[in-house]
Every structure is written in C-alpha cells, then in structure tokens.
Amino acid sequence: VAGQVRIGLIGAGWWGTQYHIPSLLAYPKAELVGVADLDPAKREGVRRSYGIDAVFESHTDLIERARPQGVIVAVQHAYHYQVARDALEAGVAVMLEKPMTLHAAEAWELVELARRKGVVLTVGYPSNYTSLARAAREAITGGEIGDIELSTSLYASMVLEFLRGNPEAYRTSFNFPVTAPSASTYSDPKVAGGGQGHLQVTHPAGILLWITGLRVAEVFAFMEKKGLAVDLLDSISVRFEGNSLGTLASTGSISPDRPSGNEIRVYGSAGSVHLDLAQGVLAIHRAGLPSRSVEPEPGENLYPAHVTSRNLVDLLAGDEETCAPGELGARVVELLDAAYRSAESGTAIKVRPLSD
Ligand SMILES: NC(=O)c1ccc[n+]([C@@H]2O[C@H](COP(=O)([O-])OP(=O)(O)OC[C@H]3O[C@@H](n4cnc5c(N)ncnc54)[C@H](O)[C@@H]3O)[C@@H](O)[C@H]2O)c1
Question: 241-271 burial, b if ≥16 CB within 10 A, otherwise e?
C-alpha cells in the first residue's frame, strides 16, 4: 500500500508471534510483507493464527522475495549476527532483538556495516521508550546530577524455567499465543550463549548505558549456574570510561507469585537519580534543591514491547528517533561479553577502546 513501510519478520517463535506480528498488523504505517521461519510448524502457526500467507523458509528467502525495507530479527541469540549481517548487506534496515550479538566484535561489525550501507540498525529494548527512562536520560545527560560517580542496577525476573529448558512451565504466566520458546532457546549454551546475562541483564544494561551515555572500560564478574548449563545469578562490577564505577546484579529465579525487580540508581557529583521501572517511579535528587519525582503517563505500559518494531517503521518513515540505536546494543554486548569472559577466567577484563 502506497505510503506504508514494508516490514518483514524473521523468526516466528514466542516473541515474534506474541508482540511483533500483532503490533505491526495493528500499525497503520506498516505493511507486514512477510514472515520467515526455518520451522514449518511455526510457519503454519503464523498462517493459522494471523491469516498471513506470505511465509518464507529462511531469512534470505524473505529478503529476496518480499523485498522489505526493514526487518525485525527475533531468532535465537547465536543466530542474531548472521541474520542481521545478511539483511544489512542487502541494504535492509534492521531491528535486532536483544542481546544484539554474543560477542563485541560482531556487534561493532554490524554497527559499522549499517553505517557503510547507510541503513538503520536498532535493538529491542522496550524500556528505553518509557516516559520515565526518557526523563531520566534527559536529567542525567542534561547535567542535572553533575558528573556521574557511581551507578547500580538490580534486575530480578522470572526466567528459571526458560534457563532449565522447560518453557511450557510459564504457559499460564505468559499466555503464549502460538508457541512457547523452544526448549533449547534459552537453556543450551550453543544457541543462547549464556543465561541470565544475555537473556536479562542486557535489559538493565541497555537502560543504564542509554540514560547515562556511559561506556564500559573494564569488567569483573561472578556468575552462578545453580546446576544449569547457563548462568542464573550474575554480579558484575564495572569501571566506566571517565572512571566512574558501577555494579549490575541480577537473578532469574523469581517465581510467578513474587514481584520482579528493575531498579537503577545513578549518583553524580551534584545529585542522584532513582529509576524503578518495576514500581513505575523516577526520583531526581539534587544538592540544595527540592527533589523531583516523575510519574508515568496515565495508563502507560512500563514494558511497551510493541514499540520496538514500530520504532523501526517510524524511523523508515522519517517520523521518529530511536531510543535503542545499534551503537547502544554494541556497548551493552561489550559489557556482557567481558562479564562472561571475566566469570570464566576469574580475572578483570579490559574492554578494548573504541576505534572512533
Ligand atoms: N525484548 C524482549 O523483551 C524480548 C523478550 C523475549 C524474547 N526476546 C528475543 O527474541 C528472540 C526470539 O526469542 P523467542 O523466545 O521468540 O525464541 P523462539 O525459539 O521461540 O523463536 C526463534 C525462532 O527463530 C527461528 N529462526 C532461527 N533462525 C532463523 C532463520 N535464519 N530464518 C528464519 N527463522 C529462523 C526459529 O526456527 C524459531 O522459531 C531472542 O533473541 C530473544 O532474546 C526479546
């Protein structure tokens, strides 16, 4: 349809079918021109549940035959890099799910490729689009709390059964519309990379680095697997460029009947910011000035999972900016890649300085 942005979805698993397909179908600016999945059962599920006939066997098939301007990439972690690279090489814009890639060198290569091809590359961080994260970023990067000295993030979530390879256990909690994730998606290191780090810590890291503009210089991490093949508990210490310090702590073991946690605190030379995206609170404290708190907008969804695909459409329509550029995704991968190497080696890992 004239004026609509042509979008394809690659990966019709849990997340692609629960969020990306419905949000694109309901977005007037977008035309969903095709959905690709390697698994015939997933393709059949998309046909049956959404009446979509333009289904393709692979991402290259979809790119060649449906000619999308942009693609949403929602495949398993280990395949992010290859699929995104093929799309960017073909001159197609990409919204790549988190974690952008498993290794820093791959992430920076994608950023550079997108730049060279002149196409947009973004990553799937819904929280960055909330009014609270926007206000926190404005306050911090606008200098309201002075120079950043210390930052900390705590993230507690319900993913233990995913990491165990038993995603069906969350059927009633997540209400999977077509399929649950595959058993191996988050539990098999060959497919998932790691556990809590790549699956979850990527989110608070994506918020923290976005609202502060910080870049990682050096990382030391402890990780515990608790009998799983991948990490369940992560404790990460960071020295950032400019010599501020930070920590990120996370557990994936919260049960469905307990509250999750998603808190970030940033302390600067002139004030501090407390962002709690589980409770929906942002407080800004400045030396010698009254504290200020920011409320979410009325009825605002604090986990707007539908916005990441629509943001790609908006960017291609020339209407919006992104809150999760590829460069941010790469800075997060730098942190996590170093954290995994640190936990493995028991040493601090220096992150290579950026070439630019
Ligand atoms: N932003 C978020 O909050 C959020 C939440 C959940 C999942 N995710 C991300 O979404 C991605 C998918 O997760 P999921 O739970 O839906 O996994 P899943 O296992 O349910 O689905 C992945 C699908 O990708 C398909 N696939 C793999 N390679 C392909 C290729 N080359 N071409 C076409 N299809 C291919 C697989 O067959 C599978 O059906 C992951 O990166 C995950 O981290 C993001």
Answer: eeebebebbbbbbbeeeeebbbbbbbbbeeb
